[in-house]
Design goal:
It catalyses: L-isoleucine + 2-oxoglutarate = (S)-3-methyl-2-oxopentanoate + L-glutamate; L-valine + 2-oxoglutarate = 3-methyl-2-oxobutanoate + L-glutamate; L-leucine + 2-oxoglutarate = 4-methyl-2-oxopentanoate + L-glutamate. By secondary structure, the protein is an alpha+beta fold. The protein is built from 6 helices and 17 strands. Strand 5 (61-65) and strand 6 form a beta hairpin. It binds pyridoxal-5'-phosphate and 2-OXO-4-methylpentanoic acid. Pyridoxal-5'-phosphate (PLP) binds at residues 60, 220, 223-225, 244, 246-249, 284-285.
């Protein structure tokens, strides 16, 4: 299989049309067999549930080329199970978890020429998603749905890759208490768009959202969970019912404890504690681990000792170990690295 002729080392985090996508349709209470198709266009009725009441959810994972030339992805079973949770909360039909993993395999295999080579710094981003497709005008769930998976090669989510970023504390909330912050609903991201445009306009790379009820605890950003390192090397990460259970964060908790022998705390994190941490980072499929050098809270700067030039030593070690496992250079726990071909 010949790879596409792309400048792999200079890709941004953007969409490009690849050769195949996976499509399955839900009608009369059941999913059809699903298939790979070449047409990237979706044609729907003007009144489709996704257009009217935003009934949609999605997932994100990546495929990697390992040093020995295999194509693998990382813990796809957890994406399947998180999508199940999203569907249940949004009154959408669950796409069976084993079929989800099988569909990921099919679409990655079909687009193998688009999977960036080992060592290029790029990866194949895999975006499974589901939308309500039949017409609804009264406020209720649709009866028909489409599950799709598109793939696109990507580079780093934040410009500059591993260089520390500056973020600000947001005055906007992205999720309500007892709302949908814990699932991957498209509507959560619609909620965050004004806040991110405003943050970018003011020179910040992302928003730090605080808990919507009291604005005293750290939640997450628009697309990643937080990790903090204390001055004595403890890994601390926020626990909240209104943030997305990041697969990267759950994996890093294991990496920190089992590989790097760090104490790990998963607990509510007060915003007032933030100035005491030695290192801070964002973690997620897209973000991998992106170091944060500075948090600005309404003009007041919180600067981490790790600075704005380099990522801190613990963040660096966590990133190297996690990506080492993902790329097959370091032996991961059983079931983490899922071989596709
Ligand atoms: N939080 C939000 C809001 C996200 O969109 C994402 C990305 O998927 C994450 C956290 C990180 O989750 P994961 O590590 O599963 O990609
Ligand atoms: C991911 O990391 O997969 C996400 O969905 C985050 C998104 C902001 C790109």
């Amino acid at each position: 299989m010949e790879k596409k002729n792309l400048d792999w080392g200079n890709l941004g985090f953007g969409y490009m049309t690849t050769d195949y996508r996976y499509v399955a349709n839900y009608k009369d209470g059941k999913w059809d067999d699903g298939a790979l198709v070449t047409d990237p266009t979706v044609t729907l009725n003007e009144c489709a549930g996704v257009f009217q009441y935003s009934q949609s959810c999605f997932e994100g994972l990546k495929a990697y080329t390992t040093e020995d030339g295999h194509i693998v992805c990382f813990r796809p079973d957890l994406n399947a199970s998180r999508m199940k949770d999203s569907c249940e909360r949004l009154e959408m039909p669950v796409f069976p978890e084993d079929r989800f993993v099988d569909a990921v395999e099919q679409v990655v295999k079909a687009n193998a020429a688009w999977v960036p080579p080992f060592g290029s710094g790029a990866t194949l981003y895999i975006r499974p998603y589901m939308i309500a497709t039949n017409a609804v005008i009264g406020v209720k769930p649709a009866d028909e749905y489409q599950f799709r998976i598109l793939v696109t090669p990507v580079g780093p989510y934040f410009k500059g890759g591993a260089k520390p970023i500056t973020i600000r504390v947001s005055d906007f909330d992205r999720a309500a208490p007892h709302g949908t912050g814990h699932i991957k609903a498209g509507l959560n991201y619609a909620m965050s768009l004004h806040a991110i445009v405003d943050a970018h306009a003011q020179g910040y790379a992302e928003n730090m959202y605080l808990d919507p009820a009291t604005r005293t605890y750290v939640e997450e950003t628009g697309g990643a969970n937080f990790i903090f390192i204390t001055k004595d090397g403890t890994f601390v990460t926020p626990k909240s019912d209104s943030i997305l259970p990041s697969i990267t964060r759950r994996s890093l908790m294991v990496v920190a404890e089992k590989y790097l022998h760090m104490p790990v705390e998963h607990r509510p994190v007060k915003f007032s504690e933030v100035p005491d941490f030695a290192e801070c980072g964002l973690c997620g499929t897209a973000a991998v681990i992106s170091p944060i050098g500075k948090v600005v809270d309404h003009g007041k700067e919180i600067c981490f000792p790790s600075g704005m030039e380099e990522m801190g030593p613990y963040t660096k070690k966590l990133r190297e170990t996690l990506t080492g496992i993902q790329m097959g250079e370091i032996e991961g726990p059983e079931g983490w690295v899922h071989k596709i071909m």
